[in-house]
Amino acid sequence: MRNIRRVFRIVLFVVFGLVLHYALPQHDVVRVVNTYQERQDLNDWTRVFWARPDDQSAELINRDVQFIQTVKRKTWLLGFIPRDATEVMVYRNEDTGWSWPFYFKFDTANLQTEADDLVSTSETPKWAVMTHYGWRNEYLSAFPNAIAIRPVTGPDVTIIPWFNIGFFVVLILAFLFLRAVWQQFRERTLDPLADRAGDQMDHVSADLAERRSRWSRWMDSWRSKK
Amino acid sequence: MFIRLMFFGFLGLIVLYAVVSVYSRSVRREKLEDWWEEEPVEGKTREAYIEEGMAAYDKGLRKKLILLIFVIPPLVAGAIIYLIN
User: Fold this and answer.
1) Among A55, A99, A181, which would you mutate to test the B interface (most chain B Cβ atoms within 10 Å of its Cβ)?
2) What keywords is this UniProt entry annotated with (chain B) (predicted)?
3) At what angle do helices B2-38 and A162-185 cross, to 10 degrees?
């Protein structure tokens, strides 16, 4: 039973982490090579990797999507080891509109123009920081969605992910709050109920009192292990 | 799309508001009980003391601050819309 619960928790944690990794903004140092537009089929499950810019697009089975082709500085290996290498990265450029994930992005055309303006060659590179969310997967034809681009002087810029810092602070606070709510609810509502129920059962028979201890053992399984 | 977001967002905020206000009331009541345990007021029953305290809470600023739950998320969304576009 304990193992099942542990597995369940790990799976939940991993899924939650994956969703956050997909949806939270990340920053890449890029050099824009080209932009293009291509018709995309949207009629299978990989639809989840494309945005829903507006109501009509929800039913379309194909539509034109804008893309930004870049050469990107590789991010630090595992987030710790710097490496001086580049790779290619292609971003899609789609409105997210009023739907998930909630970037409320409506300026796709402007972003495409900014990207066009930053097109450069490897001889005279113009570096920029691309904010994006999503994953690149060649086999599923999934592309990260570009959110914003801003020019920077060189490829060695320090990026502080302010939004993500704030997001995780709020997430931790929300978790602590929910735990406090649950503890309060248990202490003030569930435990008195269980106590009263337990008292009655004590009067009825020792046999039922045994059930009460099972109940409290079950209650214990909700408590944090000390 | 917009209407759907508004609808479910508002629904979520109502649930959050209900949870927070029930929690806040419960904490206040517990505090009043604790204060009574520490220092009972002369010539007043425990129940009356707690009911008075809860009535003061119902009129107080703290309870109205919970209404910020309906204000802050739209402001955050507005800020995101402004910053992204």
Assistant:
1) A181
2) Membrane, Transmembrane, Transmembrane helix
3) 50
Instruction: Supply the pLDDT for residue A193.
Output: 85
Containing structural domain, residue B27? 2-84
Rounded CA-CA distance A100/A98 in Å is 7
Distance CA A101, CA A105 (A): 10
Q: Which amino acid is at B44?
A: K
Residue A3 CB coordination number (10 Å): 7
Spell out a b/e string for A5-18, using b for 16 or more CB atoms within 10 Å of the CB, else e. eeeeeeeeeeeeee
- Within the 165-204 window of chain A, which residues sit less than 8 Å (CB to CB) from chain B? 180-181, 184-185, 188
Q: Each residue of A118-141: pLDDT tens digit?
A: 999 989 999 999 999 999 999 999
The answer to whether the Cβ–Cβ distance between A181 and B77 falls below 8 Å is no
H-type alpha helices, A25-152: 108-117
Q: What is the pTM of this model?
A: 0.80
The residues of chain A scoring below 70 in pLDDT are 79, 205, 207-212, 225-226
> Rounded to the nearest 10 degrees, what angle do helices B46-59 and B2-38 cross at?
150
Q: Please name which of A53, A49, A41 lies closest in space to residue A90, comparing C-alpha atoms.
A: A49
- Cα angle value A192/A197/A202 (rounded, 5°): 125
Contact (CB, 8 A) for A222 and A194 = no
Query: Considering only residues 16 to 55 of chain A, which have any Cβ-Cβ distance to chain B shorter than 8 Å?
Result: 52, 54-55
Q: Please give the tally of structural domains in chain B.
A: 1
Beta-carbon contacts of residue A192 (< 8 Å; ≥ 6 apart): none
